[in-house]
Specification:
124 residues; alpha+beta; 5-stranded antiparallel sheet; 17% strand; globular
């Protein structure tokens, strides 16, 4: 998995260890590698301290494009969902749209930095 390789390669000083795993938490995502080899990635911005498992599409981003692209993709998905929910409730989405745009820019940049990558977030 590229996300795990990215963290090891960059020598993240903030890796935490438990008796059966090592994990890292940053910008919306927690990645944990257990001694068994299992890797679990959780969405940390979804519901306070109640982290949720990510979906298969999001997992594929971490697997294929690495830590930065994966966590920004997760944030983009989360803020798009928040905007939809706010619109349903007829609430203002202005602040959410600003944050979404910032994460879309970060995701585009992370993907462009990967060699030969020409994927852009806003293209559907």
């Amino acid at each position: 998995m590229k996300a795990g390789e990215d963290l090891k390669k960059e020598g993240k000083e903030k890796m935490w260890t438990t008796h059966n795993s090592e994990w890292y938490l940053d910008v919306g995502a927690k990645i944990e590698r257990f001694n068994s080899g299992e890797i679990v990635i959780l969405n940390t911005i979804s519901q306070g301290l109640n982290y949720t498992k990510i979906n298969d599409s999001q997992y594929a981003y971490f697997r294929d494009y690495g830590w930065d692209a994966g966590r920004y993709r997760l944030c983009v998905d989360e803020y798009r969902s928040r905007i939809i929910n706010a619109e349903i409730k007829k609430e203002s989405t202005e602040n959410l749209e600003v944050v979404l745009e910032e994460f879309e820019i970060k995701l585009d940049k992370a993907l462009q930095e990967l060699e030969g990558m020409t994927i852009f977030v806003n293209q559907n």
